[in-house]
Write a structure and sequence with these properties.
The protein is about 45% helix and about 10% strand. With about 140 residues, it is mostly helical. The mean pLDDT is about 90. The strands form two sheets. A two-stranded parallel sheet has the order 1-4. It has a two-stranded antiparallel ribbon with strand order 2-3.
Length: about 140
């Protein structure tokens, strides 16, 4: 499984998003938060990696989940404001420091008092998810 995930992320195997997205959707249905979700937001990829890979794997997963769940996806709300080092070789502490203050929100009115599902491709230490969540939670209400 690990090898498949890495191929999806780094080796232009975007077609795997369909199966991974379905698996994530099936898992989400088992949790109570699923019924409250109003939007799905994919973790944004920095522009350099997006161009290099040709796609944002979190966005592909979010698209598949959105289709299955019937929950709208918001792609133009959460953005990266800096290019960070790849996380995979960093320690937990280094990951948190590396990704800190990397995200910002535009069009925050659409998120006012909304419950969203944040989709990340790989959550090892949850540093990226935590950084995104912090920005989403602290947006003006």
């Amino acid at each position: 499984m690990r090898r498949l995930i890495l191929k999806f992320k780094y080796s232009d195997r975007s077609f795997l998003a369909k199966d991974f997205g379905l698996s994530m959707y099936e898992t989400m249905k088992l949790h109570s938060f699923y019924n409250d979700a109003e939007f799905i937001i994919p973790v944004p990829l920095n522009i350099v990696r997006r161009i290099k890979r040709g796609y944002n794997q979190a966005e592909l997963l979010a698209n598949e989940i959105s289709i299955k769940a019937g929950i709208p996806i918001l792609k133009n709300v959460l953005f990266r404001k800096k290019i960070t080092k790849p996380q995979f070789k960093l320690s937990k502490l280094e990951r948190a420091k590396n990704i800190k203050d990397s995200f910002f929100i535009e069009n925050s009115d659409i998120l006012k008092c909304k419950f969203v599902i944040l989709i990340c491709d790989i959550a090892t230490t949850f540093a990226t998810v935590s950084a995104c969540s912090l920005v989403l939670k602290t947006q003006p209400v």
